[in-house]
Amino acid sequence: MTTTHPWPHLFGAGAAGTPVLLLLHGTGGTEHDLLPFVDRLAPGAGYLAPRGPVQEHGMNRWFRRFGEGVFDVDDVVRRAGELAGFIDWAREHYGITDRPLVAVGFSNGANIALAAALLHPAVVADVVAFSGMYPLEGRTIEADLSGTAVALFNGTADAMAPTDSVIRVGSILESRGAEVDRNVREGGHGIHPTEMDGAAAWISSHTQKARQ
């Protein structure tokens, strides 16, 4: 656990040969929110859990927005770059450059994870996005995402992450070469227990080499 970087965060090394989960909380959350998920998603895994740097009415967020579902895309791009820089720093600082890193985000955290994957695939290549949507409306994605893998988990009645936006982010990822695993359930915004099981299986299948 440390705050030696100006970006407040938590770090746990986990067991040798396991992935490191980049934990990205939702609006109003903190770096502690997703810690209980670590052992369920990847037993013994390490974790890197930063705090969203933007404040909205006293709530932590990853980027600014103009209203519900209306993002400040310029700020999304800026903050995704800052997150990528933080990840590079953390990999060197904590000596985890040789371990797979999987971004696990919920809601606003899922959106910044998806933005980072779309804009900085060399840094964020594997993403589990719970209740996320397309965060870069109006931007053209030109990166080669052939090494990127994303698991989307969404509810059919989620007004905060509309189905058309979820379809759009999956389609854009695939159009640039990413592997996309779509998982849709009944219900709204949140993380369902069955999604945790699906995410754990997905992480295991994408990090097999780290365990060999």
Automatic annotation (TrEMBL):
InterPro entries: AB_hydrolase_fold (IPR029058), LYPA1-2/EST-like (IPR050565), PLipase/COase/thioEstase (IPR003140). Pfam families: Abhydrolase_2. It comes from the Bacteria. SUPFAM superfamilies: alpha/beta-Hydrolases. One of its GO terms (molecular function) is hydrolase activity. Keywords: Hydrolase. Residues 18-206 form the Phospholipase/carboxylesterase/thioesterase domain. PANTHER family: LYSOPHOSPHOLIPASE-LIKE PROTEIN 1, LYSOPHOSPHOLIPASE-RELATED. Belongs to the AB hydrolase superfamily. AB hydrolase 2 family. This is Phospholipase/carboxylesterase/thioesterase domain-containing protein. It comes from Arthrobacter agilis.
